[in-house]
Automatic annotation (TrEMBL):
InterPro entries: FAM20 (IPR024869), FAM20_C (IPR009581). The active site is at D260. One of its GO terms (cellular component) is Golgi apparatus. It is found in: Golgi apparatus. The keyword NADP does not apply. Residues 159-369 form the FAM20 C-terminal domain. Its cofactor is Mn(2+). Keywords: ATP-binding, Disulfide bond, Glycoprotein, Golgi apparatus, Manganese, Metal-binding, Nucleotide-binding. It comes from Engystomops pustulosus (Tungara frog). ATP binds at Q107, K123, T193, L194, W195, L196, E265, D280. It holds the Pfam family Fam20C. PANTHER family: DENTIN MATRIX PROTEIN 4 PROTEIN FAM20, GLYCOSAMINOGLYCAN XYLOSYLKINASE. This is FAM20 C-terminal domain-containing protein. Belongs to the FAM20 family.
Length: 380
């Protein structure tokens, strides 16, 4: 074989060898990444599986004391803790020692005090959970034996009978005697939300993507495609994590169908570092056939998202979200919490979120859209 031919053959062999090694390394790296993703998913699923157990053998603290110590500026409960099941069990079973009308708002609710002095909010047939939202668990309440004996006069005055069912209409902007919430005879299904500790006072803010609620009048974000640029120049969205919290919340609200986030709360601080707390999620899981895309306006107008948020929703593709929700609510006294129609809506909306992020990546690139958790808006 001529020298020139031997050189060409040798060069081809070297190229093949290099490519083979690169492909092998790529497969190994891909396999390692897949294993890491699988481990992350398994940890996530494991954390969702709770046992409603009243035992707190390793501590002399009450469940209420434990829950109050969990609250920090960026979360209201930890990702993984052995006491979680005991706290939820206490919320679902502890004796009610006082009942009053709920704080003002648009949704019917009652303020209850459980044995040990813990305040909770009881809402008929509502339940949500999130680490930036107070703990929530389902509970069946007997209005005759558990509520009426400890109810205030103000709450008692709203009780009435409709046929064989005991009802109450409480006090809120839209609560009327003609539209009460009624038990099945005496027992009402609802959710109990843990009241945040008084040592963490709250501050209320107008949501920058709030609606006007006036017919024929649009909010600026509804017609100005450059609206996010203006928001980024306005405190507290010009620095710190608040804008990224807004975008996380938009994703959360789109999944649950909540288009009513006109205000939000944070802990009072001077640094603007407090998380956005998800307190008012009551207008959720309404019509499962309707996907209100405008809820995602903060996401598709700003085109940024936390890497951790993106990783989380990416883990939930291909039916995993349904499995995770069923696992997370399997312990609940009112299981199943969500209907099949709502589970299907959540899966569909998740794909809409992923598609929206992908459109942003196609337009601006991954490096612009994906924001590391340690980074704040001043670095974006």
């Amino acid at each position: 074989m001529k020298l020139k031919q031997r050189v060409v053959v040798l060069a081809l062999l070297l190229v093949i060898l290099v490519l083979t090694k690169l492909l092998l390394l790529d497969r190994l790296e891909t396999s390692a990444a897949q294993r890491q993703d699988q481990l992350s998913f398994q940890r996530m699923m494991s954390g969702l599986r709770l046992t409603m157990d009243s035992r707190l053998e390793h501590t002399l603290q009450s469940p209420w004391e434990i829950a109050s110590q969990w609250v920090v500026p960026r979360e209201v409960y930890p990702e993984d803790t052995p006491e979680m099941g005991a706290v939820l069990h206490a919320m679902a079973t502890k004796k009610i020692i006082r009942a009053d009308v709920g704080y003002k708002g648009t949704q019917l609710k009652a303020l209850l005090v459980l044995d040990g002095g813990q305040k909770v909010v009881f809402k008929p047939k509502r339940i949500l959970g999130f680490r930036r939202a107070p703990l929530v668990v389902g509970r069946y309440v007997n209005l005759i034996t558990e509520i009426k004996p400890v109810a205030t006069e103000q709450l008692l005055s709203t009780f009435l009978k409709q046929g064989n069912n005991t009802c109450f209409y409480g006090k809120c902007y839209y609560c009327r005697e003609t539209e009460p919430a009624c038990a099945d005879r005496e027992v009402m299904e609802g959710s109990v939300t843990l009241w945040l500790p008084d040592v963490w006072p709250l501050q209320k803010h107008r949501h920058p993507w709030g609606r006007t609620y006036r017919e024929g009048k649009l909010a600026r974000w509804e017609y100005d495609e450059s609206y996010c640029d203006a928001v980024k120049k306005t405190p507290p969205y010009d620095a710190g994590p608040r804008l990224l919290d807004i975008i996380d919340t938009a994703i959360f609200d789109y999944l649950i169908g909540n288009a009513d986030r006109h205000h939000y709360e944070s802990f009072q601080d001077d640094e603007g570092a407090s998380m956005l707390i998800l307190l008012d999620n009551a207008k959720s899981f309404g019509n499962p056939s309707m996907d209100e895309r405008s809820i995602l306006a903060p996401l598709y107008q700003c085109c940024i998202v936390r890497v951790s948020t993106w990783n989380r929703i990416s883990h939930l593709k291909h039916g995993t979200l349904r499995s995770a929700l069923l696992s997370a609510t399997g312990h609940d006294p009112i299981y199943p919490v969500l209907s099949e129609a709502h589970l299907e809506a959540l899966e569909r909306r998740l794909q809409g979120i992923i598609g929206t992020v992908q459109q942003c990546i196609d337009q601006f690139g991954t490096d612009v859209v994906m924001v590391e958790d340690r980074m704040t808006l001043s670095h974006v």
